Amino acid sequence: MVSKRSAPLNFHQLAERIKRWGAQLGFQQIGITDTDLDRAERHLTHWLEQGRHGEMHYMARHGLRRSRPAELVPGTIRVISARMDYWPPGAREAFAVLDDPTVGFVSRYATGGDYHKLIRKRLQRLVDRITAQVGQFGYRVFTDSAPVLEKALAEKAGLGWIGKHTNVINQAAGSWFFLGEIYTDLPLPMDSRARNHCGTCTACIGACPTNAIVAPYQLDARLCISYLTIELRGPIPKRLRPLIGNRIFGCDDCQLICPWNRFARTSNEPGFSPRAPVSDRKLAELFKWTEREFASRTSGSAIRRVGYEGWLRNIAIALGNAPTSKVVVTSLESRSDDASDLVREHVAWALAQHR
Ligand code: SF4
After folding, report:
1. CB proximity list for 176: less than 8 A, separation 6 or greater
2. Which helix (H) or strand (E) holds 139?
3. 3-state DSSP assignment of residue 3
């Protein structure tokens, strides 16, 4: 990271401008912090030592570069942390979908277009504005795309506190937002860390279908439905399958129950509007998709990440958890001889639930 500047800068003024430009670019909030993540590093190290990251080996692979921004991008002294609300406009009420076992529940962040590109582009435009103001400076933009402790950075930058469910909550906007970061060598003034307002509440701990929040602020990813349905590549442990219900991509239960989400606002971003092919569709209909249909209907969607095999695996479990009906059994039987061992095994399990 090498900055080339001539005239001295007023960094307080620049920070204010960055926040104003961020709002113009669609971010609900911008905060600035330094790179000292000692506290978060201790938490991360303990979490990894306990093996709670499961098969997310990339979490361990990057070592302490994740908690030491300057080791990832040399020269970094500040992090500009940004949040953008995503609660999809026109999304069917999440509880209504969870209560209908014939329909597949997709985590609300994934019912619209993939956020990575959108946020990255907006952050780059923010960088372009800063460059136009100050000249060349050192930076790198991230959106859930590299070893970055984005929640800890957001908390330090004042965007919200990390709740007992381990997501970031903003007092005025709840937790339905994406995060992005700009690592920079600009010595910008810092914002204050957000205060924790969980208090005595434990609603999310009790609401987790698989008891994945093993203690306040401690998530065992190996039990988390988001991990099981998105990150895990192989078979889902049999004892957890009945607890997954109709969740075919991710899980929002800990956030749905959180009282602070009373203050969440609907996103104005057209890119986050629910997409008809994936959002809240009948399981039997989704289970018919060919690989080609999966590829075209999830194009530009975060769902792509799970892959066709994982998608069928997840739907098979949801069909196994659905009430017995001719449609459900016929749908499962149609894939009894699927080419994938993984899918066949999950279909056999699901059919056994209906016998
Ligand atoms: S549900 Fe309660 S304990 Fe959990 S994150 Fe929200 S406020 Fe905190």
Report:
1. 85, 86, 87, 108, 109, 255, 261, 264
2. strand 139-142
3. coil
Task: Examine the residue annotation and report whether 185 is marked as an active-site residue of this protein.
Answer: no
Is the overall model pTM greater than 0.85, yes or no? yes
Cβ–Cβ under 8 Å, residues 205 and 164? yes
Tokens, residue 278: 């994936």
pLDDT band at 90 (very low <50, low <70, confident <90, very high): low
What does the pLDDT look like over 128-148, one tens digit per residue? 999 999 999 999 999 987 889
> Among residues 36, 85, 99, 144, which one is catalytic?
144
Q: What tokens were used for 169?
A: 């909550």
Q: Where are the alpha helices (DSSP H) in the chain?
A: 11-24, 38-49, 57-61, 69-72, 94-98, 115-134, 150-156, 203-207, 225-226, 241-244, 253-256, 283-286, 291-297, 307-321, 326-333, 341-353
Cα torsion 28, 255, 170, 10: sign: negative
Question: Ligand 1: which of 161, 196, 260 to mutate, most ligand atoms within 8 Å of CB?
Answer: 260
Q: Is the pLDDT of residue 114 over 70?
A: yes
Give the range among 1-10, 229-238, 251-260, 319-328 with minimum mean pLDDT.
Answer: 1-10
Q: In the structure encoding, which two tokens stand for residue 104, read together?
A: 């597949």
Per-residue exposure over 54-76, b if at least 16 CB sit within 10 Å of its own CB, e if not: beeeebeeeeeebbbbeebbebb
